[in-house]
Amino acid sequence: MARLISWLLNVIYLAILVVASPLIVWQAVRTGKYREGFRAKFLGWVPTRDGNAPCIWVHAVSVGEVNLMATLIRELRTAHADWQFVVSTTSRTGYELARKKYADLTVFYCPLDFSWAVRTALRRIRPTMLVLAELELWPNLIMATKQYGARVAIVNGRLSDHSFPGYRRIRPFISRLLRQVDLIAAQNDESAQRFLALGAPSGRVHVTGSLKYDGAQTDRQNPRTQSLRALAGIADDDIVFLAGSTQEPEEQIAIDIFRRLAPEHPRLRLVLVPRHPERFDAVAQLLDASHLPWQRRSQLDPAPRSATASRLNIPNSPLPIPHSLLAPRSSLLVDTVGELGAWWGTAHIAFVGGSFGSRGGQNMIEPAAYGAAVSFGPNTWNFRDIVATLLAADAAVVVNDTATLEAFVRRCLDDPTFAEQLGTRAQLLVRTQLGATARTIDLLDQTLNNRSSYIHREAA
């Protein structure tokens, strides 16, 4: 049965690739996506692991998951110094960030879910456990991992309002797949109940809280943020309005609000951090059209570097404190990957993007942890539990449209006490939510040490 399912999945995947091939080719030519990692993705030719120590294979899809898993990986490596760890990603930006963030680990593109590719990758990596971030239910990968004899764990697991109905429509298949997962560490009770409703065994589903809280920095004086403040020439009395993880048309909205409010508030500064690198140039055009003085983050480095290094400026050590190249009151376009977490530490007023459109929101914990006055749009279903927690503590504000966002920014400027108290409540809330990493590590250790843990081997 397992072979039949794998064969059918291979046929479906190949059919999807054929249908999508014109778009894939166009994206590869236009943006450079999909050009890299061909052998790893299609053939499973990932780096071969040396040695026989226990090995944890961590799969983090893209930039968000790569950052999310950093604290967990660091704590696991501290607790198990004799183990080996490898990291896979799916996206190019995720891969490049992981290469920088985990420079001493093996990083590779995860094979696509073809049976031959995942089996080859498993033979090369020889993992003891496969750890999947949030929700990556790739059937061939999970089935092959179990047949190999390794454990499978989902950490920071979540099932959103959008994904759950789709999985429920194919519940018989998903139930069979979830029975092969040894551990599901869910973010909250709602996701845990949804995993159970889809057929996950009750003894393997646990609520740990969100890893996103544990990875959040709360100290604005950290060296990375301080060096970026100096690089951008942000003075102590400047008020930074930062719109981060934005998508179209959120950058234009932020620019328009800044243009209307800046004449009344000469210390107001605008920082824009688009979610996707392929939009950097489009946002640059918006800034050009605004006639505002502005600069690219990549052009602020004191020493010239290659285009790739400039675009992916993610050093492992803090930047030197240079003389700022940014003119006073200039706006800043952050056209680099992996820096948003530190830039949030410069923000006094924060708008978390992906929340006016169809993306479902982005991580609002980072600006909250720094004590910024946090706002986001109404479409935040991907972070429903976090939003509910923030709103219940009066630690963030929902802005439904351009007018309400402008009113929020204006209130923060006119009433600094309001902004300060909102940020203080947000920071205190984040501090009360810590501990998910420790709970997750305990569960991973129990799963690895439980010799009676279920290992599914389907008869051919």
What does this protein look like?
This protein is of the alpha/beta class and 460 residues long. The chain has 2 domains: 2-209 and 436-449, 3-Layer(aba) Sandwich (Rossmann fold); 223-432, 3-Layer(aba) Sandwich (Rossmann fold), CATH 3.40.50. Helix content is 46%, strand content 14%. Strand 13 (373-376), helix 18 and strand 14 form a beta-alpha-beta unit. It is globular and about 70 Å long.
CATH superfamily of the largest domain: 3-Deoxy-D-manno-octulosonic-acid transferase, N-terminal domain
Number of helices: 21
Low-pLDDT runs of 5+ residues are 302-325, 451-460
Within the CATH hierarchy, at the fold level, what is the topology of the largest domain?
Rossmann fold
Radius of gyration: 23 Å
Helix content range? 40-55%
